[in-house]
Write a sequence for this structure.
């Protein structure tokens, strides 16, 4: 009977260590990705106008937007030197159409539509973005 208790305790401890390690690794990688995201967002002048230099990014994986209950929108909190806000981007369904969303909600509840003004990791478009140069000559 004593051996069974020891074996169960060892299994429980192993499971606890495994779950703890995986959780710690997840949050470590998430923090690294948020740091990289802050660097990428600091290259966007439209965000610097409203937020200043972005110091902190928090990607909220559990956040829901009522326009997309299935989680089709990415929501992240941004903390800048001038202001803070929430950046929401992705696509929502309206009837049988898909509508792109790219907006920044500042701390004072000001909503700024960034459609056509901001591109993040393949989402959205920038009007002033440089287009790839193509040549009419054949190689």
């Amino acid at each position: 009977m004593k051996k069974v208790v020891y074996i169960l305790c060892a299994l429980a401890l192993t499971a606890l260590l495994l779950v703890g390690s995986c959780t710690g690794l997840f949050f470590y990688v998430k923090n690294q990705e948020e740091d990289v995201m802050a660097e990428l967002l600091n290259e966007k002048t439209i965000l610097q106008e409203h937020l200043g230099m972005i110091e902190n990014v928090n990607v909220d994986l559990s956040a829901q937007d009522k326009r997309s209950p299935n989680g089709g929108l990415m929501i992240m909190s941004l903390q800048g030197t001038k202001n803070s806000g929430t950046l929401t981007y992705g696509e929502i369904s309206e009837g049988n159409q898909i509508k792109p969303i790219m907006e920044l909600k500042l701390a004072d509840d000001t909503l700024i539509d960034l459609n056509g003004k901001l591109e993040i990791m393949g989402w959205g478009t920038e009007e002033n973005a440089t287009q790839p140069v193509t040549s009419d000559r054949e190689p």
User: Anything to note?
Assistant: The longest strand covers residues 84-94.
